[in-house]
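Technical appendix A lists one of the benchmark inputs used to test multi-chain prediction within the project. The record comprises four sequence entries:
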Amino acid sequence: MTDADPIKTPLTLDDGVDFAIIEHLFFAYRDFTADPDAILDEYGFGRAHHRVLHFVNRLPGLTVAELLEVLRITKQSLARVLKQLIDDGYIVQIPGPRDRRQRELYPTQKGRDLALALALPQSRRIRAALEEAEPGDSAAVERFLRAMVNPELRAQMDKLPNGRSK
Amino acid sequence: MTDADPIKTPLTLDDGVDFAIIEHLFFAYRDFTADPDAILDEYGFGRAHHRVLHFVNRLPGLTVAELLEVLRITKQSLARVLKQLIDDGYIVQIPGPRDRRQRELYPTQKGRDLALALALPQSRRIRAALEEAEPGDSAAVERFLRAMVNPELRAQMDKLPNGRSK
DNA sequence: GAAATTATGTCAGCCTTATTGACATAATTT
DNA sequence: AAATTATGTCAATAAGGCTGACATAATTTC
């Protein structure tokens, strides 16, 4: 009986849980993804296309298998999205030079342009958020977000180019 | 012709976009949601159930309309998820005292327990991430995440109980 | 050189979470 | 009494995942 009774007091920070950051992450991520979502809509693409396009631009020449590992989705899930991006001329496949079974994935100029257009509002939002911040906050945020990732997956992040790499 | 050519240089920070934080957010949020997702699976629930259960626990007595506004989904999307949570005894509906058309939503003890169980690994992850951090980083992270939210939606966040309440 | 393994592609079917539009009911407001 | 409001429900659709099965070509192994 008592188990079906309504509980009228809210869960609060007193319950030993950091609801503030949990909820801040939820709302921040929602608005963060809303920017590119609006653009993608105009192209008939979704968030899945964005992720593929993004990583192909950040790691040009990566293979299908490598992409699957970064995205942690199945081959069949990737197939539909990747096929569209190729058919529409945003990404091209080139047989691997060593192993000709592999398909190296590269963006076209069209794909590069769209990737940048999608990243721009996100970068703008981040810059605006950091303008209201104290100096050093940027590094703190990056450290925190990195520490939120499973340790065994941090190596993946380190593979991404982080600076002037011609 | 040139438009279909592969581009072999990666997008880097030089392109004027803060890819570091963009990607850190992506990876951090993915692992952050993986924790509760694993628990929800055992109950036959998904992420949608989590969100409903969370906000009903944080704002007990909120109405269906209020919940729709927080979640920004449609009535029809909420219906299925909410019905399951009610049928399974995690949430109860009580006719609004003023307006008997309204249904106030409250968690049961079972619903309170599950909400806490879902929040715990997330809170643990946050605590662990902050242990490696400098003092003051926690506040910096919270400020940053808040600034990432659309200004007009920040008011919604302020409605959530943030401290010792009763 | 034959056999096994690997990288990729593709087909078919299913699930979850979201959407829109339409309509029903009960309660409140005008 | 009529209009509006809060909620519930039905039907159809879409995106983005999933699994399992099978095909093909290229490489590796024996």
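Chain B has seven helices and three strands. Chain B touches chain A through 87 residues (CB under 8 Å). Comparable benchmark entries are summarised in Table A2.
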